[in-house]
Amino acid sequence: QTFTAWCNSHLRKAGTQIENIDEDFRDGLKLMLLLEVISAERLFFFFIYIFFLFPLRLSEIVDGNAKMTLGMIWTIILRFAIQDISVEETSAKEGLLLWCQRKTAPYKNVNVQNFHISWKDGLAFNALIHRHRPELIEYDKLRKDDPVTNLNNAFEVAEKYLDIPKMLDAEDIVNTARPDEKAIMTYVSSFYHAFSGAQKVPEAAVDLVAISLAWRGPHGHPYGEERTLWPLAWGGGAPVAISLGRRDPMANSMRNRGHWPSAWQGEDPMAISVGRREPRGHLPPRPRPQDINTGWQHLEQAEKGYEEWLLNEIRRLERLDHLAEKFRQKASIHEAWTEGKEAMLKQKDYETATLSDIKALIRKHEAFESDLAAHQDRVEQIAAIAQELNELDYYDSPSVNARCQKICDQWDVLGSLTHSRREALEKTEKQLETIDELHLEYAKRAAPFNNWMESAMEDLQDMFIVHTIEEIEGLIAAHDQFKSTLPDADKEREAILGIQREAQRIADFNSIKLSGNNPYTSVTPQIINSKWERVQQLVPKRDHALLDEQSKQQSNEHLRRQFASQANIVGPWIQTKME
């Protein structure tokens, strides 16, 4: 699958493609097209070229031998896609691996050590793309435990935006203990060519600048024009390719101080004029070879130092990007958490709460304080990241500082509001506890007093039947005794009502809105006052009733005594007559 996709990525330039790699190359036509495309020249001596590149039996390719065909394609891939990869004078495979390691070094969870298991989780592919085209990949959202998604994401982005066809299958890579090394190398080499091609012009410019800075005389003055053009004549444009010998074999040969180009063997290279247009005698003095050698060393050191500076600067900028994104994420999470918190802390719901409600509010506030303490670390991290961004000269430091300052100021406000609300809740709790105790005392005294008034009203309205003056006088004495207790009862009533007034005073003074109902009794001050007024009304009525009955009994007693007196006179007379 990988080799087929690689071949089709080149054959499409010729307007064709293959479907079965061991069948479609049997007649040699598409194989010739493939070689013409990738070598950029027509192969008039096709079979001679094949024999030169691939020491294989062509008859087996014609017969459709899959193993031989795949071996031939792998040889082509090595020759045209991998062999020209060179990083710091390493072999093609080692150079490609070193290139991958350098490009993916700053990325977490990526450790490229080979071309098989190091690529199974898909992060290395995504890291390569993100390193060169960060706008295509949201690397921070990738998870190491989701390799299939990572692989498919890299394959789709590479195919859509980088014109690199999909050569691998995500499920095959994940489900294989050791993915095929040749397939991985083939696919990764496509990334190398895609990205290194885009960097040739900037690298060439850097090389030319380095040369212009390094090729100066021992006193810091540039050599004459003819003295500085000789490397161009020597290398045929070599300065563009001398950056650590990355692209031109000439650059590698120039590293060897003991070997000059063959055209100059046996001659003093400084005695050769540009293009050999002037005789030697007319040339101005040339620098000595040891001066050139020293200048070359300075050039190499300058380029090496510049490359190291570039790498360090890239790492710094990547670090800055990572820190800035981390700052934005943490700041956004914190801002989302703080949304609505100030309004919550400013509300005065405790003013209308009961004692049980205020205890629930206190428990809720304690939970919020724990949450607030847990977010303290996040605020400190945000401040630390902002400080580090400032120390690293982040270009957008003003906006970062403004956002950080806003977060810190808001954090201070939240802390102050939290403290104030706790004090208000605790103060209200104490006041409600005092009010609750007063309500309980009121209930304990109001209930028996209410029962006493109800009994008194019953007694004052009780019908009485008497037959003698003694009985009515007994009732009057009892009533007088009852009236003598009324002042004490009135004091008790005032004390009970005073308890209620004290509770209300505390509530009003502290802006607490009581519900109006005593949780311990249904006897309200209004009920007590109403019944007391009723008792006050019944007492004089009872007085009149008893006095009327007393007068009646006194009249009856007078009549009884008068009757007895008359009876005592008439009785003996009647007795005498009867005898």
UniProtKB/TrEMBL annotation:
- Kindly list the residue ranges recorded as spanning the membrane: 31-54
Give the Calponin-homology (CH) domain ranges.
90-196
InterPro entries xrefs: CH_dom, CH_dom_sf, Spectrin/alpha-actinin, Spectrin_repeat
**Gene3D superfamilies in the record, alphabetically?**
1.20.58.60, Calponin-like domain (1.10.418.10)
Q: Which PROSITE patterns match?
A: CH (PS50021)
Q: Extract the signal peptide range.
A: none
Gene Ontology terms, MF aspect: actin binding
Enumerate the UniProt keywords alphabetically.
Answer: Actin-binding, Coiled coil, Membrane, Repeat, Transmembrane, Transmembrane helix
Keyword Heme in record? no
Spell out the coiled coil positions from the record. Answer: 358-392
Q: What Pfam families does the record tag this protein with?
A: CH, Spectrin
Descriptive protein name: ACTN4 protein
